Amino acid sequence: MKPARFLIVAGWLFWALSAFGAGLGVAPTNINRTIWAGQNAGSNQFEVWNTNGVDALSFTNTLSYTNCGIYTNWITVTPGTGVSYGEHQGVWVQMVTTGLPPRTNAYQAFVQVAAGENTTNTPQQVEITMLVQGATFVVAPANLAKVVSAGQGTVWDILRVANTGALPHASLSYTVTATSTPTAWLSASPTNGVVQDATNEITVGYTPAGLSAGWYTGTVTVVALNLTTQVVEVVLRVNNKPGISWNATNKVWTNAVLVGNGVASTTVEVWNSSAAPVGQMNYLLSANSEPLGWVSVSPSNGVSTGDHQVATVSYATAGLSPGVYTGELVLSGTDVATGEATTNGPLRVGLQLTIEAGQTLQADKASLSQTILQGYGVTSTIAIWNGGDPPRGGMQYSITPDVSWVSLSPAVGVVTNATNSVAVIWATGSLAAGTNSGNLVVDAIDAQTGTRAGNAPLTIPVTLIITRRTPLNLELPTVTGTLYVGQTVGAKPGLWLNQQRITFSYQWERAATRAGGSREVLSGATNSTYVVTTADRGKYLRVDVTAIDGTPTPLSSTANSIWVDSAKIKALHGDFNGDGISDLWFYDETSGFWAASFSATSSAAGFFGGPGMTAVPGDYNGDGYEDVGVYESANGMWHILYLPRGESVSGSLFGGTAAEAAATPLPGDYDGDGATDVGLYYQGYWAMRFSSNGTVNVVTPFADAGAQPMVGDWDGNGVSDLGAYKNGVWTIRDAEGNLDIVSFGGVGNITPAVADYDGDGSADLGVYDLSANQWRWRSVQTGIESNASFGTSSALPLPGYYDHDRQADWAQARLSTNLDFIVWEVKRTMETSFPYRGQSYQQSTGRWRVSW
Predict the structure, then answer these.
(1) What does the DSSP 8-state code read for residue 483?
(2) CA distances from 644 to 90, 297, 678 (A)
(3) Among the listed residues 816, 825, 814, the one whose alpha carbon sits nearest the alpha carbon of residue 851
(4) Which of 480, 523, 477, 484 is nearest to 502 (CA)?
(5) Strand duo 696-699 + 685-689: pairing
(6) Whole-angstrom Cα distance, residue 794 to residue 627?
(7) Where do runs of H (alpha helix) occur along 591-671?
(8) 3-state secondary structure 76-97
(9) 190 vs 184: CA distance, rounded Å
């Protein structure tokens, strides 16, 4: 600013200074803008200055609108006035254009810049033009959806991009982005562009390869730069490849009709059976037949998207003669989307049409008979078939009984070429045992026409025989085993009607006589086995067996074994104290001295007999105790000391003959009454006096007279059998006179040793080989041979029951080398913890000594 000395009179002097020497400068003088509708143009600036650069220039800005219509308030000029001494003063033009609608001609406004009258170039104008263009960015459609089949190739959609705003259109730049999950199945091209007056296209690609059936989503995002963003939602449905199905589940459709009759049409349902999502499937249904024309289908094609389409299958039988005709239904399908064949198919079902002749009823039974246990039922069968000429049609039959105790299942049926088996159910119900009669009536008709079949009706007589269920004994029970004190005997239940259904209970009894005198029921003895006690000695055992048929209701009856001599509890040979175990004993023929050892601490001794008398102990009175006996060969006398009472008797078998004096005494139970009988053997002859009746029985020679006689119960019936042994040959004679010759034992230093080694209840052929110190035995029942080594060579074999099992034990007796000791050695089979028993009797001291 100039110095104040020029300002004389503020009013007129200021004006004078401004009027002289000033020039108005304005730049720029044009502001041209192009915007989108709704866009704010913002602000622009022009400058005002004093072009002479010396004097002050005061200016004023005045705004005016041209060609703007009602829109005259969209510009603001700031400041409205100003002063310049040469410096440039900025003037802001603020343009608020958001309310200006687009149009083809531009909006105009002018800012007039005026200075003093003496200022050159005043006034000047700044022209403002504003061209508003339409800018409405549109992407269509707003959503995309596509349906494809699994494995299908790439398919396409089109997005259209346009500027739909009012003219003139703005030129809009945009970008395109495709996004999908999983990636890679959605694409868009091109990925950018510019749109103004024309409509642009964006190609959207769907590539389902690798995608499983299902629904997938994605987006195509189109961004109009600086304007808007539009998101197109994309849905892709990948359908399963179609699978063709129908309700023709049978592999062959069969129809049968009598000649001259027709067959009703039927329907078949067809559908796309793939899992969801399901696509469209074209199908084709065709019918083939020979001869042509007897089967057809309508409609023969269609479309299914999982829905069931129905087609009718029709038959034309007129003019067809009897026989079997064949054809085929064929169903195929294709994917509508791809034209590919379905994942399965084509499907086929055979067609069979039988033109039949008449029917004839046949059955395999002219009569039926059944035997049934009372209270039970059984099932038998009857066969029914069509005996007409082929091809046969269906024959419907029914079977009706005229009695209540028989029924049929099924009672009705249909048969063509096969044979039907019908169950005949027999039920005894409450019927008593006996014979019942009735009939089955079999009727049949043609299943197609209802006319009665040939041979119908048939009458089949039926007979029901009911047998009793209460157990019936057919063979009495028996007592088995070794009937000595301490032994376990068993019960065989005998033979019963329907024995396979029966269970048994047992009750043991004993009696003093074979007639059942003083019978006792043994308390607690209810098992199938029984251990013989000392109280049973000399008595008879019996077992009562109760047979029980438990189903459906318990029925029972009882049978008992009979009182027989073979069931008598006998004395065990060599058991003088009656404890059921053979004792160690010896007899001195020179003095008649007897000594017996019962255990390691118990023994007895006494005199009975004398010189020339042979020891023959046995149970001669049948009381179950072993008695002391001797045979006096000089006069054929038997002397018996009954134990334990101590009474004695003497007697002769033949009356003191010379033959008796030379014979070998062989006592045994030859009549099976449980008492020992006296017996002699002489030059092949046997003589036995039966204790049961006092008669004498003589047996003529049956073996070599020089053979060694043997006694044993080889058949296990309780009766002593006769035997002879020589040079390894055994000849055995039972009580009925039957002979059995067996080679066993061999030659050499062999001593027979008969005993029941295997515990089967019958004596075995046994020998002791003194040279080899070996025991050998052969079962008479099975022929099985066994052997064992035990004892001392040159000893006397004395097998017996030295423990309480059923098997005979090996035992020997011998003199010591100094002739003072009588040594016993026993091998017991049951007592494994102490199997050996050995005792010696010292003659010089008269004492038993335990050796081991």
Answers:
(1) -
(2) 165, 112, 20
(3) 825
(4) 477
(5) antiparallel
(6) 28
(7) 658-662
(8) EEECCEEEECCCCEEEEEEECC
(9) 16
In the sheet that holds 739-743, the strands lie side by side as 708-712, 721-726, 729-733, 739-743
pLDDT confidence of residue 832: 59
CA dihedral 653, 659, 662, 663 (to 10 degrees): -50
**Residue 464 near residue 405, CB atoms below 8 Å:** yes
Look up residue 769 and give its two tokens: 């080989």
Q: Are 742 and 732 in contact (CB under 8 A)?
A: yes
| CB neighbours of residue 114 within 10 Å | 17
CB 701 within 8 A of CB 723: no
Contact 504, 547 (CB under 8 A): yes
Residue with tokens 């047992």: 506
Both tokens of 325, joined, read: 């005709």
Question: Tokens 């057809």 — which residue?
Answer: 296
Residue 11 pLDDT > 60: no
Listed residue (263, 272, 274, 288) closest to 349, CA to CA: 288
Q: Tell me if 680 sits within 8 A of 660, measured CB to CB.
A: yes
Question: CB count, 10 Å around CB of 774?
Answer: 15
What's the order of all strands across the beta sheet hosting 281-290? 252-258, 347-356, 323-335, 281-290, 301-304
Residue with tokens 């149970």: 619
Residues 6+ apart with CB under 8 A from 454: 358, 359, 360, 361, 387, 388
CB atoms within 10 A of CB 357: 14
Q: Specify which residues 355 forms β-bridges with.
A: 257, 323
Residues facing residue 163 across a β-bridge:
137
Pairing label, strands 377-386, 419-427: antiparallel
Which pLDDT value is given to residue 15? 37
> Taking a C-beta distance cutoff of 8 angstroms, is the pair 542, 536 a contact?
no
Token code pair at residue 196: 């103004």
CA dist., res. 6 & res. 222, Å (int): 69
- Token look-up 């009381």 returns 623
Q: What is the full DSSP assignment across 371-399?
A: EEETT-EEEEEEEEEE-SPSSP--EEEEE
Is the predicted pLDDT of residue 711 greater than 90, yes or no? Answer: yes
Let me know the angle formed at the C-alpha of 626 by 623 and 631, rounded to the nearest 5 degrees: 115
**Amino acid found at 134:** G
Higher-pLDDT residue of 717 and 7 is 717
Question: C-alpha 609: how far from its chain's center?
Answer: 80
pLDDT in tens, 438-476: 999 999 998 878 889 989 999 999 999 998 888 999 999
Q: How far is CA 267 from CA 51, 246, 309, 543, 776, in A?
A: 106, 11, 10, 79, 90
